[in-house]
Amino acid sequence: MKKTFTLYVPRLIIPILILSLSILRASPFLPTDKKAVKLEPGERNPFSQRAPATSQITQPVETEEFQIRSFLSTVLISGYTESTTSRSILLAGRRITVGDILTDLVEGQTERILVENILPDRIEFAFLEPENRPITRRFSLPFNLQPTVRYLLPTQSPVNKPPVPNLHGRYPPKNEGVSDHQLPH
After folding, report:
1. What are the angstrom distances between the C-alpha of 32 and each of 22, 35, 36, 48, 105?
2. How far apart are CA 108 and CA 111, in angstroms?
């Protein structure tokens, strides 16, 4: 007994194959259809290979003014004093008063910075222009010398409130999350 295998091809595949082959044969762009392009001596060749565009590596440019502002915004201000005649601050271990000219904040500094005003919450600076021109560049540096709590440790009870006994005369447990019946009596 011979075994025969029959290949069943869906009816739609054959018409799709015939259609796709006829489209490929009817392509309008055949090598014989190309037209020669003649160029004048001064014209650019539209088919020539151009050199790939070189990518330029850009680096952020830090101006001296930007470096000075960055330095002053990160430096530690640790004190403020006010007397009847003047105000001063302690800026990075250096006493600065109104009217001081700062010339050595960053390496190679050519700009001169004038301390215009010192207030309890900010310092006002101005960049001195060359040749005694009027000042056009100013900036202020806010600061806060109020004491703050950096780490708050857990306590047994709220501040200034002694523990209150419950109805049974027992005080609340020292450790939160532990019920009364778990504590030793």
Report:
1. 19, 8, 11, 21, 75
2. 9
What are the structure tokens assigned to 2, written together?
């011979």
Say which range, 1-10, 27-36, 72-81, 145-154, has the weakest mean pLDDT. Answer: 1-10
The dihedral of CA 115, 119, 121, 124: what is its sign? negative
Dist CA 129 CA 137 (whole Å): 9
DSSP H or E run through 57: none
Helix (H) or strand (E) holding 115: strand 112-118
Quote the pLDDT of residue 163: 61
Per residue in 152-171, is it b (16+ CB within 10 Å) or e — as a string? eeeeeeeeeeeeeeeeeeee
Q: Round to whole Å and give the CA distance between 177 and 111.
A: 62
Q: State percent of the chain over pLDDT 70.
A: 59
Mind listing the domains of the chain with CATH numbers?
Answer: 64-142 (2.30.30)
Distance between CA atoms of residues 167 and 17, nearest Å = 92
Pairing of strands 137-142, 94-97: unpaired
Q: What Å distances lie between residue 19 and 8, 10, 23, 26, 27, CA to CA?
A: 20, 16, 6, 11, 13
Three-state SS at 39:
coil
Residue 182 or residue 40, greater confidence = 40
